Heme chaperone HemW
Amino acid sequence: MSASGEDWQAAGFGLYVHWPFCQSKCPYCDFNSHVAEHIDQKRWADALSREVERAGALTGRRKLDTVFFGGGTPSLMAPETVAQVLDTVRATLPLANDWEVTLEANPTSVEAGRFAAYRQAGVNRISLGVQSLNDGDLRRLGRLHSAAEARAAFDIARREFDRVSFDLIYARQDQSLDAWCEELDRALEMAIDHLSLYQLTIEPGTAFGARAARGGLRGLPDEDLSADMYDLTVERCAEAGLELYEVSNFARSGAICKHNMLYWSAGDYAGVGAGAHGRLTLKGQRHATVCPSAPGAWLKKAEQEADAFEEFAPLSGQEAAEEYLLMGLRVTQGISMSRLLAMGADTDLPNRVDRMVEAGMLACEGDTLRTTHQGRALLNAVLRELLAG
Ligand SMILES: C[S@@+](CC[C@H](N)C(=O)[O-])C[C@H]1O[C@@H](n2cnc3c(N)ncnc32)[C@H](O)[C@@H]1O
Ligand code: SF4
């Protein structure tokens, strides 16, 4: 376990801060997000800061590479709240010189007005949830902003930050390949150094999930059209200089999101906030942490108890190896076979890997195992085969 423990150190250390509130709930979204009438920002800032201090005490002043404010909608955080949390981070943990601090933002004008203050607080990267560049599609996705507002927010973001990414959701209802191609080209004209391009997933427990179960969500692309849209996306982005580095993420050289890369390469991260998950290697043993999802329950725990964890459990070698496989095969750089085996993967895994290599889904070069283009398009099926030990 100690050799793999050193690898976890090498993959870096991050802090994830979850802000669980949104102005309204989008019909496709199953993230831990809640609509609240009133939020006591100072109370939340104090509770989050307390949790950051506890994470620092637990991890023994480990050097921090990244911070990610995710949600929900972190751009609903008052700039003072973000500043207080980041001040606590600076006072608690030593920082890497090139630490990356990302904040997820929704493109309404009110929120874009806060970008300068976020930068002053220490945020150095914005990830903007544009979702579509067409007003009709934004309405169907239940978004509160227009395409013009999204562009305006993006322009403000690029004035304030060197690093700006935005998200689009494609493979939407009644979207043709040509329509996506045209929208993607417009997005690529805007893009700076990073794009996240997700195919619409119908999640159980969401409004879209319920509508789909009733047969009411018509016009979604079939598998062939979705695959064509994906191929087109990868090609067009590459032509524009944004290389695929994870199933849905594209970046110019040097602009990958370090924080997400840390998840995908099984690095350690502390998770604070409602519903936040963490992975911490303590004395050579990897642990999984989970906080309560309900905002009120989390706040009470953070304020009144010694920590806000609902779960704090050691991961077995087999569990850690499966997680590394699940996450690591999403990224184009792939995973290290020797690290996977050192973590405690079952002894039949190399045989299952060989079968997937023969089927053209995986490629093995030296110690590196990665998905082929075909394997990435069928990633869920490939992972099912590999995990069927
Ligand atoms: C935490 S969410 C959103 C951040 C921010 N609240 C927003 O909506 O702009 C991160 C991203 O996941 C993507 N996403 C969420 N649910 C999805 C789904 N069901 N299918 C595809 N993409 C989804 C969206 O692109 C979204 O921007
Ligand atoms: S997509 Fe973003 S704004 Fe919409 S409900 Fe999910 S987290 Fe909130």
About this structure: The domain at 2-262 is CATH 3.20.20.70 (TIM Barrel). Residues 41-59 form the longest helix (19 residues).
